[in-house]
Specification:
- The protein has 141 residues and is of the alpha+beta class.
- The protein has a single domain, classed as PH-domain like, CATH 2.30.29.30.
- It contains four helices and eight strands, in the order E-H-H-E-H-E-E-E-E-E-E-H.
- It has an eight-stranded antiparallel β-sheet with strand order 1-5-4-3-2-8-7-6.
- A hairpin with a 2-residue loop joins strand 3 and strand 4 (70-77).
- The longest helix has 16 residues, at 117-132.
- The termini are far apart.
- 24% of the residues are buried.
Length: 141
């Protein structure tokens, strides 16, 4: 779900918390060695996101916050903050071209540059966390 998170709205916050879980505690953040990504440069995006990004002339960039049950991909446009809420069961990440990661949720997608070690390390941490915390499948029993 793509939402405007510029204002402190209790209904939107509860909706986000129900989708991807409440934020990690300080102890869990330290244990994970951080839950936020470095600044990510957007190279391509789906129509809804692209329409928001082209409204201003600033560089198209975003960041990702890990939550217990998913991620929040945040970006800004025209002094407004937007978030794409993606639970892990709908999250698909592809490493396409050299140093480009594609993040998909249903009909939304964002492609970001991963040209630094920090970005690649974050995506490895994210994928490892997703696989470690997924529910047990029937085949594993």
């Amino acid at each position: 779900m793509l939402v405007n998170v510029s204002y402190n709205d209790k209904k939107i916050r509860e909706k986000i918390d129900s989708e991807v879980g409440k934020p990690f505690t300080l102890k869990e953040r330290i244990k994970l060695a951080g839950i936020g990504s470095p600044k990510l440069e957007i190279t391509e995006a789906s129509v809804e996101i692209r329409n928001l990004l082209i409204l201003d002339n600033n560089a198209d960039c975003c960041n990702i916050e890990m939550r217990p049950n998913g991620i929040i991909l945040g970006f800004r446009s025209l002094l407004e903050s937007y978030a794409l809420i993606i639970p892990f069961y709908k999250l698909t990440i592809y490493k396409g071209d050299l140093a480009v990661y594609s993040i998909y949720k249903d009909h939304y997608f964002v492609k970001v540059k991963a040209d630094t070690k920090a970005v690649q390390k974050f995506f490895k941490k994210l994928l490892d966390y997703k696989t470690d915390n997924r529910p047990t499948s029937i085949e594993d029993l």
